[in-house]
């Protein structure tokens, strides 16, 4: 049991060392931002609006089906 615990601690030490190296790299990688053309930003905004409309429609359909099943079950 002590050997397993020692192996687990050694593995945790290796993982924490790897994470200590990767974390700052990931932090600085997010700092670089590229300027996007206005047309791209507008297209992304329009697409997001479309996704929201479709998501709301699907949600309403699911609610309607649940209400229909509930009403069919009622005496």
Question: Which features does this protein show?
Answer:
75 residues; mainly alpha; 2 helices; 85% helix; flat; Methyltransferase; G8P; signal; transmembrane
Question: Uncertain segments of ≥5 residues (pLDDT<50)?
Answer: none
Question: N-to-C SSE series?
Answer: HH
Q: Give the N-terminus to C-terminus distance in angstroms.
A: 62 Å
Helix/strand/pairing category: mainly alpha
- How would a crystallographer describe the biggest sheet? none
Q: Count the helices. How many? A: 2
Strand content: under 5%
Helix content: over 70%
Number of strands: 0
Shape: flat
Number of domains: 2
What integer is the average pLDDT? 80
Radius of gyration: 26 Å
How is this fold's topology laid out?
Elements: H1 2-29, H2 38-73
What would your notes on this structure say?
It comes from Parazoarcus communis SWub3 = DSM 12120. Pfam families: Phage_Coat_B. InterPro entries: G8P. This is Methyltransferase. With 75 residues, the protein is mainly alpha-helical. The protein has two domains: 1-33; 36-75. The protein is built from two helices and no strands. It has helices spanning 2-29, 38-73. The mean pLDDT is 80.
